């Protein structure tokens, strides 16, 4: 099965986009992406796609988690932070659906870094949209389990030690200096038997 729910039940084996780390069992669950997501460049006129982003970072989204609410106070000369209410990226009946999707895509494509905090679930579809657009995602989700790297081993992002209140970046101590981002391998876990039961993820 392929499960994209924000609150997945960990009873069955399959591919999960948003299974919390505390409930994840690598012996019978695989971390994956969403099956369908937009390449933001397809939503914007080619003449409006910048090859040299003028924004250092951006975040356009709803305050669905404490982590996101903390980001709304960020300011900077080359930043764009915008609150969105009453919009669901998967619901075409949302008010001004196409207009707001295009605006989201335009801001993302103007950005060097795109803040990708968790929402109702541990994952965020904007992470995969950011990668599709060739921009750099800044992942803010303690319990998110990343998909396996091409080598078959999971990867973990190493980042600055100072992060917004309400959530910490997925980080680990390494030779990277605070404030710099990179990827470091995580040793694979040993297989274990499927759990006989487990509580639903919150």
Describe it.
With 202 residues, the chain is of the alpha/beta class. 13% of the residues lie in helices and 20% in strands. It contains 3 helices and 9 strands. The protein has a 4-stranded parallel β-sheet with strand order 5-4-6-7. Strands 1-2-3 form a 3-stranded parallel β-sheet, with no helix packed on it. A two-stranded antiparallel sheet has the order 8-9. The chain is globular. It starts with a strand and ends in a 17-residue tail after the last strand.
> DSSP strand (E) fraction?
15-25%
Provide the structure class: alpha/beta
Q: Averaging pLDDT over every residue, what do you get?
A: 75
Mass-distribution shape:
globular
Helical region count?
3
Q: Measure the end-to-end span.
A: 20 Å
Enumerate the spans where pLDDT stays under 50 for 5 or more consecutive residues.
Answer: 157-202
| Main sheet overview | 4 strands, parallel
Rg, rounded, reads: 17 Å
How are the SSEs ordered, and which strands pair?
Elements: E1 2-3, E2 14-16, E3 29-31, E4 55-61, H1 66-71, E5 79-83, H2 97-109, E6 111-117, H3 125-132, E7 136-140, E8 155-158, E9 182-185
Parallel strand pairs: 1-2, 2-3, 4-5, 4-6, 6-7
Antiparallel strand pairs: 8-9
Give descriptors for this structure.
202 residues; alpha/beta; four-stranded parallel β-sheet; three-stranded parallel β-sheet; 3 helices; disordered C terminus
